[in-house]
Amino acid sequence: MGYYHSGLASFPLVPGHEWAGEILALGPGALDPRLRVGQRVVGEHCTGCEPAPRCNVCQRRGGLLRCPRRKETGFFGRDGAFQTELVFPAAQLHALPKQVTDLEAVLAEPLCTALKAVRLADVDSAPKTSAGPRVAVVGDGAVGLLLLQALRWRHSARVLLLGARKQRLQRARELGAEA
Asked: What is the spatial distance between Cα 8 and Cα 152, in angstroms, rounded to a whole number?
C-alpha cells in the first residue's frame, strides 16, 4: 500500500476505513445539536488540521485531502474501526436515517468516491446516443458497481462495465450494465 511505502503510515495501526457506529459519548467540543448519545453515524475518512484554526491548504476546496497534517481513518494518523470504540471529531460525523442499515451505511464513503468520479468525468459532455451517454467503467469491485448505479441514476447512461469476476459481472447486469 502506497501509504506505507511512502512513510505516511506505519505499524501498528488498527485498520477499518469505512464504518458506521453509535455515539457512546460526546466530548466537550461536540457542539453540533444534531448529534446525541445513542445516535447512529458515519464519519468522513479524512480529517485535516485538528483542532481549528485550519491551515491555508485545508481552507481550500478539497484541501483536507492535501493537508500536510491530515489523518485518514484506518490508514494513517488515526486507528480505524476494527476496534471496540473509536474517538472521532464531531464535526466530521453524519447522522444516519433510521431506515439505513449499518451494511448500507458503510458504503457512504465508497459512494462519495463514485459520485465524485462521475462529477469529475463530466459525463454530460460525453458522446450521446438517443438512449443517453455511453460510459465505460473499469473494475467490478464495490466502487465500480456504485459508479454503474450513479451513472444510471444521474445520467441515464448506457454503461459497459469491465471486470473479471463472474458473480460481480452478473450483479452489474442486474444493476443495468449493458455489457
From this structure: 37
State how far the Cα of 132 lies from the Cα of 124, in Å rounded to an integer.
9
How far apart (Å, rounded) are the C-alpha atoms in residues 104 and 146?
12
Give, as one character, the DSSP assignment of residue 97: P
pLDDT band at 49; cut points 50, 70, 90: confident
Q: What is the CA radius of gyration of the chain?
A: 19
Q: What is the pLDDT of residues 117-157, one digit of tens each?
A: 988 888 877 666 667 788 899 999 999 999 999 998 878 88
- Label the pairing between strands 132-138 and 158-162: parallel
CB contact at 8 A, 107 and 142: yes
Among candidates 21, 16, 3, 14, which has minimal Cα distance to 105?
Answer: 21
Q: Which residue has the cell 448500507?
A: 104
Q: Give the pLDDT confidence of 69-117 residue by residue, as tens digits.
A: 888 898 888 899 999 999 888 888 999 999 999 999 999 989 988 998 9
- Written as one letter, the residue type at 70 is R
Q: Given pLDDT bands bounded at 50, 70 and 90, which one contains residue 6?
A: confident
CA 18 to chain centre: 7
- CA atoms of 58 and 156, how far apart (whole Å): 35
The C-alpha cell at 79 is 486507528
